[in-house]
Amino acid sequence: MTPAQELEQLRIENTQLREQLTSRDALVTQLIERIQTLEARLSQDSHNSSKPPSSDGFKRSPKKRSLRKSTGKKPGGQPGHEGQALKQSENPDAVIAHLPTTCEKCQTDLTKEAALPHFEPRQVFELPTQLKLHVTEHRTYSKKCPTCQTVTKAKFPQSVKNWVQYGPGFRALAVYLITYQLLPYARVCELLNEIYSESLSPGSLVNMIAECYEQLAEPEKTIKTALTQAKVLHCDETGLYVEGKRHWLHVASTLYLTHYAHHLRRGSKATDEIGILPTFQGVAIHDGWSNYLRYACTHGLCNAHHLRELAFVHEQLKQAWAAEFTTLLVDLKEEVEVARARSETSLSSARLAYFEERYQQLIAQGLAANSPPEGGWPCGKRGKPRQSKPKNLLDRLDKQRHQVLLFAYRFDVVEYGKERKRIPG
């Protein structure tokens, strides 16, 4: 082989090696991104994502911390707080008198002595010694007319349809245990049998729930009408499985009313058929999902979602701007609450300008820390840029900043949110 041929051979091998290195570099980059994605997925829980607390498992994360600032108050009830301690009844069901039998000083017999009028009461609240169902028998009698001799029989009340049946209170308890306390059918049958000695079948429970469903048609219609006329409405949806298939549960709520709707779809087909959002004209608070934005009402974004996402970006990706953004939102919320406590209806233009400037600065810092890679963001399966989680969050905070800060401009939104927290559950 001539020197020229050897040189050409080396050039070819060098080109092949460069191509292999380029291919391996791309593979390494791809694997690093995959590892980061998997690590991020494993590190997500209810405090830094939209995952429910039930998915956290038994491992307690040390990273969870409250965003509330210390008030300096001691734990427990504060002075002036109305407690909920057990109070004595003015009309006890039974009274047991305890009388002394001998004098504690000289041991004289006191059994025949009358008790003094003053006494010290102590009460014990206990379940009845025997829990049993109260049975009411309805009897219909007949009467004979003295004029025409016709025998007329009385009619049973409309609610009494069978020879023997459970009353509305018992049926309501069974439905409550299944639909609210979420007990399995077999457990409810076992519980009612243990307490009331009544053998109940799961089929009877199914019939009770079906009956309750039919009776709630009018109340549900009234609730939906009230929700469409509400000033502020919170909207959300979550997945559930029915016989192994993915379905969706849609919720719309105010301070006192909540409507749940089950549907096979998640998007506009479901919300249109449910019929609340299409005619709603107030403020809809939600997580920014595009399906909600298609409705012609005022929109506000739920910052509880943003705080969880910011916690993820700060704790897992170590981006400092996210922690500062969290502080910004919390500080702004506290300032709004202080202004509301002073019966003010809005923040001053100077304070709003200050927070908006901080807002813009942090958006700029976040975008600088999440600039597109060389060649742009990679495309997903549908050809759209597959941006990182921080970049998606920044785009939402930037493009929908008015919806994010709506609580600072509309104090009625804050008032609703604060009052709502007082309701248990």
Structural class, by secondary structure, is alpha/beta
Instruction: Quickly count the helices.
Output: 14
The main β sheet shows up as: 5 strands, mixed
Radius of gyration, CA atoms, in whole angstroms: 34 Å
How would you write the strand order of the largest sheet? 5-4-3-6-7
Beginning-to-end CA distance, first to last residue: 85 Å
Overall average residue pLDDT = 86
* Element order: H for helix, E for strand: HEEHHHHEEEHEHEHHHHHHH
User: Per the principal axes of the C-alpha atoms, what is the gross shape?
Assistant: elongated
Helix content: 40-55%
**Low-pLDDT sequence parts:** 418-425
Estimate what percentage of residues fall within beta strands.
5-15%
Task: Tell me how many strands there are.
Answer: 7
Describe this entry's structure for a reader.
- It is elongated and about 130 Å long.
- It contains 14 helices and 7 strands.
- The chain starts with a helix and ends in a 5-residue tail after the last helix.
- Helix 9 packs antiparallel against helix 10 (349-369).
- The protein has a 5-stranded mixed β-sheet with strand order 5-4-3-6-7, sandwiched between helices. A two-stranded antiparallel ribbon has the order 1-2.
- It is an alpha/beta fold and 425 residues long.
